[in-house]
C-alpha cells in the first residue's frame, strides 16, 4: 500500500470515529479537539510509508558523454588526472572489500571519486549531489569522507619538501623567476573560512571578524606545495603558526638544508632568520635603491605562493572558499585539495579558469608584537645578498 492510500484510509477511519461521538456537542473547544485528534490520526498513517524523493537516473552515463572541457568544468580535473587519482585508489586497496546486502548497488571507486571531486570543486549542497547521483545524502557524505580520509593519510607521498640533492635544482628554478639566489621555497599562510559549532569557536574568529583556520604552506617554483600545516584557529598569527610547525623545528635544527647556501622567503608577517629572508621594512628615512630592488626581487619570487598556489587551490576547489563541516573534516577536505592540486600540476593539468578571483584571505594577520626582524645572522645574509644585487 502506497503513501496516498494510507492517507485516504486514515481520513476514512478518522471520520468514522468522529461520527460516533455525540453530535449534540456544540462547544468550540470540543470541535477544536476533534480537529486536532483527526489531524494526528491522519499524520500517523501517513508516516508509515517513507517519503519518496524523485532523483535523476543515469547521470554516470551522462558523465561518460561529457566533452573534456565539460568534464573539467564539473569535476575540476582533467580526465587524465581523474584516471591517475583512480589509479592511486585502486593500487592502495581503497575499499577492497565491500559487502552487498541488497538494495542500492554499492558505489564503485570511480563513482565515489566523481562525487568527492564534484563536492570539492563546487559550493553546492549535498542534496544536489544526492539527486544527481541517485544516492542518499548520507551516502554522499560517506563517499566524500572516505576519499578525503584516504588522501589525508597519504599526503606525505604527494607533498614533499625538496631533499638535499634537489636543493640546487629548486634554487635554480626560483632564480629564473627574479634572479633571487638560494631560494628553496616560499612560505605564506591563508585562511579557510569555516562555521564552527565547537565550544571554543571564539578562537577561530580571526582579525577580520569571520571564522577560519590557517593553512600554512611552503610552495615550489611550479606552484606545487612542498609542505602544508593546517587547522590552527584563525585568531593565530602566521608567524605563531609557523613556529609550531614540524618544518620550522627541523630547519632550526639544520635538518633540512645549509643556511649558508639556501633559504626560504616570506613576507613581513614572518621573522627574519638566516634561513628565512623577508623584505626590508619601510622606515621614516625611506628605503635605499638597493633595498627596494631586494624587496622587488623577493616579492617577484614569492608570488608563486599567494597569487599562484593559493589562488589555484581556491579557484579550482571552490569548497576551500567556505566550508560547512566539523573542524576535523574541514582539515581533511583542505589537505585533500592540496594533494590533488599537486597531482594535477605534475600531470600538466592546470587551472583553466584563470579569470576567477576567489578571496584568498592571505592578509588576515592581527598585530604580533613578538615578531623579530633584527636577527643578526638574518641581517648579515640579507645584506650580503642585497650588496651582490
Automatic annotation (TrEMBL):
Subcellular location: Nucleus
Gene Ontology CC, one term: nucleus
Nuclease in keyword set: yes
Annotated InterPro entries: HARBI1-like, HARBI1_dom
Pfam families: DDE_Tnp_4 (PF13359)
GO MF entry, a single one: nuclease activity
Cofactor: a divalent metal cation
UniProt record similarity statement: Belongs to the HARBI1 family.
UniProt-recorded name of the protein: DDE Tnp4 domain-containing protein
Organism of origin: Daphnia galeata
